[in-house]
Automatic annotation (TrEMBL):
Keywords in alphabetical order: Cell membrane, Membrane, Transferase, Transmembrane, Transmembrane helix
Biased composition (Basic and acidic residues): 7-20
TM ranges: 46-66, 118-136, 148-169, 181-211, 217-243, 255-275, 341-360, 381-399
Protein's UniProt keywords contain Phosphoprotein: no
Keyword set includes Isomerase: no
A Pfam short name: GT87
Similarity comment text for this entry: Belongs to the glycosyltransferase 87 family.
UniProt main location, coarse: membrane
Species, as recorded: Streptomyces drozdowiczii
Protein name per its UniProtKB record: Glycosyltransferase 87 family protein
Compartment(s) where it occurs, according to its Swiss-Prot or TrEMBL record: Cell membrane
Region (Disordered): 1-20, 479-501
């Protein structure tokens, strides 16, 4: 385990340049003049790596907005089929009218017409949606208002994108260019304005940055706020728990847990007290929601023709998530070297996605910043992104097929099932290489220079105080040291037969 002195030495080393260490990055750099050299240092004063990555992320976000132009101009308002064939669907304009924002209804407090009754989003996301509605001018046609509402939300989500890019680029002090993985991710640009997930992603990225700066309370506060916007960020407390357990940093974990609970309550408690029915809609909707697009559950039901009770799906998914997260915990406590925080964060969120009963295409946004920090290798990242882009196209073409009537334009059921399998395999592949890096830390490119955990904050360079494999080895050594009973000691041979000493 590197000492604090060693860690400080590593932090003083120059910035890692991917074009000098990653063959795919080096090959891609030929499009812009080749690997960085002495001339790149002259321009670094004018544009830092963090600034460059933020600009690239904003540029990619803008390209994603351009990709939505067919829908913005007409497809959102001329039936479902066109927005699917152009792969430019977004929830944002439809929910402006569908969730009462066009009529001035207040989320959670005012009952909606129809079966939905209340807004089915967590409180902080509802606040984000309401602020965008306040910024959307009234008057004119409803189509014009929906277009403006989407533009307002896109502007706010672009700010979230810039925050994510800056946080990811700064989390690993010596590896800011790993943020380009997030900034250039094609699935990020394609899905950024489908829904409001980028709010939770930005808060989670900020929490990761705070953890890397040894500020566990700020980490917890941001995780609590992110959980008030989307449920998945609370899973990051699991990796923090087992890593602090292994390093004996209980005070730091306590601060993180306290900050999470406190900030979550600050946001949720007023709505819980004054609008309890509206507040609990997100949780009841999530529980009652049936098997939906993108999940392996959908493949099973479509292939077998048999429906599965939603209660059974909820139970199995919950048990599977707990079991797999427990396995990640055991891996953490038995690994030859304490895993990096980003590695475990990626794994637990990936587990949640893989066993869930629904996988909306924008859920990939949850994983992209974590993947850039957990496995900053362009080859593996692009393999995964290819699978996600194919799934993005697959779901829209499948919906086009199901809404085209007798024309059957789009992707049939079997093709969509293949797209789901590709998404699952791509995510599993990235999980596998992350686990391999944990089991064989010498394969971890981030630690190639002797670093411990650049995103680990107070855990970076800390000594291990509890390692399960060490306890097992110590227990075995103690048993071997005990005096033997009279007579020959019998052991079991490899062939399953007793062998005497």
């Amino acid at each position: 385990m590197p000492s604090a002195e060693d860690t400080s030495v590593h932090q003083e080393r120059p910035v890692v340049r991917p074009t000098h260490r990653d063959e795919v990055a080096a090959a891609g750099s030929e499009l812009i003049g080749g690997r960085s050299g002495r001339w790149s240092r002259l321009s670094s004063a004018a544009l830092t790596p963090v600034g460059a990555i933020a600009l690239v992320a904003i540029g990619m976000f803008a390209l994603g907005m351009v990709q939505k132009l067919p829908c913005y101009n007409w497809a959102w308002f001329r039936g479902a089929g066109s927005q699917y064939t152009h792969a430019c669907y977004s929830d944002i304009p439809h929910l402006y009218s569908g969730r009462g924002f066009a009529d001035g209804l207040v989320p959670y407090f005012d009952r909606l017409p129809g079966d939905m009754q209340f807004l089915e989003y967590p409180v902080l996301t509802g606040v984000f949606m309401q602020v965008a509605a306040w910024l959307t001018p009234g008057g004119g046609s409803i189509q014009g208002q929906e277009q403006t509402y989407w533009l307002v939300n896109a502007g706010m989500l672009m700010i979230c994108t810039a925050v994510i890019a800056v946080c990811v680029a700064r989390t690993h002090r010596r590896r800011p260019w790993d943020g380009l993985l997030m900034a250039l991710a094609p699935a990020f640009a394609l899905t950024a304005t489908i829904n409001w997930d980028l709010l939770a992603v930005a808060l989670t990225a900020g929490a990761m940055l705070m953890w890397s700066r040894s500020r566990p309370l700020a980490f917890g506060i941001l995780i609590g706020l992110a959980t008030a916007a989307k449920l998945y960020p609370v899973l990051l407390l699991g990796p923090a728990f087992v890593l602090c357990w292994r390093a004996g940093k209980w005070r730091e974990f306590g601060a993180a847990a306290l900050g999470t609970a406190g900030s979550w309550l600050v946001v949720n408690l007023p709505v819980m007290v004054f609008a309890p029915e509206g507040w609990k809609k997100f949780y009841t909707f999530s529980e009652e929601r049936g098997i939906d697009f993108g999940s392996f559950w959908l493949v099973i039901t479509q292939r077998t023709g048999e429906s599965i009770d939603v209660g059974t799906v909820n139970t199995v998914s919950t048990v599977a998530t707990i079991a797999l997260c427990a396995a990640i915990g055991v891996l953490t406590l038995t690994a030859p070297r304490r895993p990096r925080f980003a590695q475990l964060a990626f794994l637990v969120v990936a587990v949640f996605i893989l066993v869930n009963k629904v996988y909306s295409p924008q859920y990939v946004l949850w994983l992209i910043p974590l993947a850039a920090l957990a496995r900053p290798r362009w080859r593996d990242f692009l393999i995964w992104q290819t699978c996600e882009v194919l799934y993005f196209l697959g779901i829209w073409l499948y919906l086009a097929y199901t809404t085209s009537g007798d024309k059957h334009q789009g992707l049939p059921t079997e093709g969509y099932q293949l797209a789901i399998v590709l998404h699952l395999l791509g995510t599993l592949y990235l999980c596998a290489v992350v686990v391999r890096d944990i089991v064989m830390p010498e394969r971890d490119g981030v630690r190639r220079d002797g670093s411990d955990d650049p995103s680990g904050g107070v855990l970076d360079g800390a000594e291990d105080v509890f390692v399960l494999s060490h306890l097992i080895e110590t227990g075995a050594a103690r048993r071997d040291a005990l005096p033997s009973a009279p007579g020959p000691r019998v052991e079991w041979g490899t062939a399953g037969t007793p062998a005497a000493d």
